[in-house]
Specification:
The structure holds 2 protein chains of 2 kinds.
Chain A (H helix, E strand, L loop, with lengths): L2 H5 L5 H13 L1 E3 H15 L8 H12 L4 E7 L6 E7 L6 H4 L4 H16 L5 E2 H5 L12 H13 L3 E4 L2 E4 L1 H14 L5 E2 L6 E2 L3 E2 L6 E2 L1 H7 L32 H8 L7
Antiparallel strand pairs in A: 1-3, 2-3, 4-6, 5-6, 7-8, 9-10
Chain B lengths: L45 H13 L6 H37 L4 E2 H9 L6 H16 L1 E7 L4 E6 L7 H5 L2 H17 L4 E2 H10 L14 H11 L3 E6 L6 E6 L1 H6 L2 H11 L8 H17 L13
Antiparallel strand pairs in B: 1-3, 2-3, 4-6, 5-6
Helix pairs in contact in B: 1-2, 2-3, 2-4, 6-10
């Protein structure tokens, strides 16, 4: 019985170009992914109907299964923008970074990662990270050099910097979810709503449960008196807006500035 | 060093074969095997495997119980070896893709050292299967560059598209916006007041806080992203009341473009020659001379902006 063909999709040049370009960018926002898909159809098969994005990606993922990789969809932690990245399913280390950074640079990343996960806000200050420079494996690194390496991490979308503090880019959260859960099982925080890994979010001051900002937005949507889903205490934080890509918002900037001290990720 | 994956009982898309080391380098087609029962997408568990394999053994009526157990164990070992081979092929594919990003040829010894390990006798088969995946899934052809030194490169089989980034509209429009700002800054003597930047953008129909279908929120893009990525510098102008801020080129802009290039861009916009602005043209020429002198030490860090 051809059981496997049910699962395995067909690759055409449309899908191949899509994959290549997605790989080049590392991570893309949904609006860019849709544009990318349209572009690939235009180049290779301009008369075809563009498949719904979800189906298109599921089709590709069924082929990628045997390679232990998949196109994973996530959501930025600060404003709920959907993002996509090609992630490794099988390995549980930071192997994708391993080929681009030296041993001491990878160790710097690991140190920053640990500080971020241990922190309460999900951010680690530049100072605290740089103070660990003496403990790095591999070739000795000076603080000035480390500053430069941290910028490399920002440019390649593994970290985000905001006001001298660093947190994980959505890409890193997508790619390293398994690694983080396995390496820091005690320190890891989880969202009460979606149960996935949480780096930034809001927490209940009474019982301590945490929620992602976009999860808060969805859960308390049009609820004028939000209460903690766990202990029912009044939810003290400002509830952000649900991300809506269609709406052109005049005051969108000022409101989103107010609700989140941390900048968006993309 | 890529880690070996812990588990992954995924359907094996080809027939079980003898691991006797005889290889003709034939590429494996990605078709489902009719002999293998599809295994569930679950965690690999030895008991389950053994159970399934025992069933296979039990269907052989001529075997003694001892013989059936031996057969079961042998089949199990073969399945495990198969899975391990699949994982190694998958890792090699990823390794080759990552290495190719840096445009450096990959040597056989690197592949053996980082991925293949003690399966190195199966190298011809592993690389053949990896090549097939690269071709079918990604559209890359794995080519051996040098027969003697066993180095390989990936060649893109998809036709190249001119100005693909612009056509995509991903980073393209945003970097186009950046160019406009860099142009304004340069033409105003290497710094431009924030108010001037917004005035120019307003003429293009771009308002700071209004969501734009190409740029997102322009104010965030410019004030945060471009500044964070070091394309722009943003600072308070001293002794201004009410306080004003100004933009200047960030260090990354100096690396990824040049005064001459930006002047050329501005000139094209106005349908004129760069020489039309003698002051800026002279400055750009001097900048080019400086760059030529710096020459070897100016590294092409622009490649990192592809990430």
């Amino acid at each position: 019985m051809q059981g496997n063909t049910r699962r395995t999709g067909i690759m055409t040049d449309v899908h191949r170009r899509f994959l290549q370009l997605l790989m080049t960018h590392g991570v893309l926002e949904e609006c860019d992914v849709k544009r990318l898909q349209k572009h690939c159809y235009k180049v290779h098969d301009c008369n075809a109907t563009i498949e719904k994005l979800e189906d298109f990606i599921n089709n590709i993922n069924s082929v990628l299964e045997s390679l232990y990789i998949e196109i994973k969809k996530g959501v930025t932690e600060d404003d709920g923008r959907p993002i996509y990245a090609l992630v490794n399913l099988a390995t549980t280390s930071i192997s994708k970074m391993a080929s681009d950074f030296a041993e001491n640079e990878l160790d710097l990343f690991r140190k920053a990662l640990e500080l971020i996960i241990d922190s309460d806000t999900g951010f680690a200050s530049s100072t605290n990270i740089l103070n660990l420079v003496d403990q790095l494996k591999g070739k000795k690194m000076r603080k000035k050099e480390a500053e430069h390496v941290l910028q490399k991490f920002v440019q390649s979308k593994w970290l985000i910097e905001k006001e001298g503090e660093f947190t994980l880019h959505g890409r890193a959260i997508l790619e390293m979810d398994q690694y983080i859960r396995e390496t820091y099982p005690d320190a890891v925080k989880v969202c009460n709503i979606c149960r996935s890994l949480l780096i930034q979010g809001q927490s209940c001051e009474t019982c301590g449960i945490r929620m992602h900002l976009p999860c808060v937005a969805k859960y308390f949507q049009s609820n004028s008196e939000p209460h903690c889903p766990h202990c029912n205490d009044y939810w003290p934080h400002e509830v952000p807006e649900v991300f809506d890509p269609e709406k052109e918002r005049e005051t969108g900037m000022s409101r989103s500035n107010k609700r989140s001290l941390r900048s968006r990720q993309h | 060093m890529l880690q070996k994956p812990e588990s992954g009982a995924l359907p094996i898309p080809q027939a079980e074969r003898e691991m006797d080391g005889s290889h003709d380098g034939e590429t494996q087609p990605l078709t489902a095997s009719q002999e293998m029962a599809p295994s569930p997408l679950l965690q690999e568990s030895p008991e389950e495997d053994l159970g399934a394999v025992r069933e296979e053994g039990a269907s052989e009526p001529s075997l003694t119980p001892k013989g059936a157990r031996a057969l079961a164990a042998k089949t199990l070992a073969r399945r495990r070896a198969c899975r391990r081979l699949d994982r190694t092929v998958a890792e090699l594919v990823q390794f080759l893709l990552l290495k190719d990003r840096k445009k450096s040829p990959i040597t056989r010894s690197e592949m053996v050292k980082y991925v293949i390990g003690d399966l190195k006798d199966l190298f011809p088969e592993i690389i053949a299967r990896a090549a097939e995946h690269l071709r079918y899934v990604f559209g890359f052809e794995l080519k051996q560059l040098d027969r003697k030194h066993h180095t390989y490169i990936l060649i893109n089989k998809l036709k190249p598209i001119e100005h693909e980034e612009e056509a995509l509209g991903g980073d393209g429009p945003r970097l186009g916006l950046l160019m406009m700002i860099l142009g304004l800054i340069y033409m105003k003597g290497n710094s431009a007041r924030e108010a001037q930047v917004w005035a120019m953008l307003r003429r293009l129909g771009v308002r700071p806080s209004k969501y734009h279908f190409l740029f997102g929120y322009p104010k965030r893009l410019i004030m945060e992203d471009f500044v964070q990525l070091r394309y722009l510098n943003y600072r308070r102008v001293p002794h201004t009341n009410p306080p004003e801020c100004e933009f200047s080129w960030g260090p990354r802009s100096n690396l990824e473009t040049s005064k001459m290039k930006v002047l050329g861009f501005v000139a094209k916009l106005h349908k004129k020659e760069p020489q039309h602005w003698p002051v800026q043209y002279r400055e750009a020429l001097a900048d080019e001379a400086d760059r030529a002198r710096a020459g070897a030490s100016v590294r092409a860090r622009a490649s990192t902006h592809l990430w």
